[in-house]
Amino acid sequence: MWVAVGILAFTYAAIMTERLNRAIVALLGAILIISTGILSQESAIAGIDFNTIGLLTGMMVIVSISRKSGIFEYLAIWAAKLAKGNPAGILALLVVVTAVVSALLDNVTTVLLVVPVTLVICSQLKVPPYPFLLSQVIASNIGGTATLIGDPPNIIIGAGANLSFNAFVVNLAPVIAIILVVHVLAIHFFWGRQLRTTPEAKAHIMALDERAAITDKVLLIKSLVVIGAVLVTFIFARFIGLDSGTIGIAGATLMLLLDNVGKSSEAQTESVTKVFNEVEWITLFFFIGLFVVVTGVEHTGFLKMLADKLVAVTGGDLKSTGVGILWGSAILSAIVDNIPFVATMIPMIKSMAPAFGGPEGLLPLWWALSLGACLGGNGTLVGASANLTVAGIAERNGVPFSFVTYTKHAFPMMIVHIAIAHIYWVIRYVP
Predict the structure, then answer these.
(1) Counting beta carbons within 10 angstroms of the beta carbon of residue 367, is it exposed (0 to 12), middle (13 to 18) or buried (19 or more)?
(2) How far is Cα 299 from Cα 308, in angstroms, rounded to an integer?
(3) Could you tell me if residue 133 is inside a domain?
(4) For the chain, how many structural domains are there in total?
(5) In terms of pTM, does the model score above 0.90?
(6) Is residue 257 part of a domain?
(7) What does the DSSP assignment read for 335-356?
(8) Inside any domain, residue 39
(9) 383-408: per-residue pLDDT in tens?
């Protein structure tokens, strides 16, 4: 047991130092779990959640192809013009666009698409880009909390607890809408109302043609059809008996087919190779290694022991346990990446089922974990993958995005968001 816990602690510590790529760290941890005999090779493979891997891979492929149509640039320019070139209005609208897109795609992909366009708009308006980038990365994690596919922690929770796309929307979207409104108002109060630009800069923004951003109208139509079909299938997944990973891979396959039909064999090979090169293999292999490490720790009984202790402390009281998971997840997800944290928590919460009357009794706890981990990831720069992604893009473009500055602004906002989630959770789920 303690060897497994040591390997898990080593994996977490190495990820936090960022001296080694996180995929290397996770795979190294997985190798140690197998080589020390904690898991057999067969058990290690069985511990990998291929439903999660399939969903992530499928959505990455869909986005990789659809982004070539220019749809995301169109949305950013449309938002800027809708605000009449007013920086405060653009700031608010880009936050909303980022949150909505993050609910439909994963938040890392969303910021990769929206942030470069935001930097161009800020350059044209001659306004500081930092408030825009900070507000967008927080919005991406807020919006991603609302759906099964919006944030990697939700993908893991959905697969681990067998929760549907509809269940996430019904249980989390209402409070996320409230939190998003609060976030927009806070951003406007702290930064938006102070932003100023020149009439010439506004005129330049208004002169932009969003339709020119659409570089391939045929591909745009194909992309919208596939994305729409995938979302509809997610909604009816329980009725047709398909897992989210199968739906994601099916959507990716259809997208590849529509993008390559009619091309020569050589052109198809080049096109498919380019798409697969854009898949975030680092993220996928990070998940694979992490699943093995967590399965190894679970196999030793350590997580069940922790679960039993938590139930003993709370006396099996739903409110105390749920609030503890919500706030504990938020604080810890701000300190460590929320993906490995959630992967560790899932088997621990599953072990509590007997104390809460079976798997159905755990449902409120899953929503507490999702809200805590996804929103808590906003607390610091290392809390979520989207945060580090935006920081990297910002620094490559000469925009300082330090850990301390980000935390100073984001952590208080995160506390407010968790407080709202706390009130919502208690009102909705505590008898």
Answers:
(1) buried
(2) 15
(3) yes
(4) 1
(5) no
(6) no
(7) HS-HHHHHHHHHHHHHTTGGGG
(8) yes
(9) 777 887 788 778 778 888 777 888 89
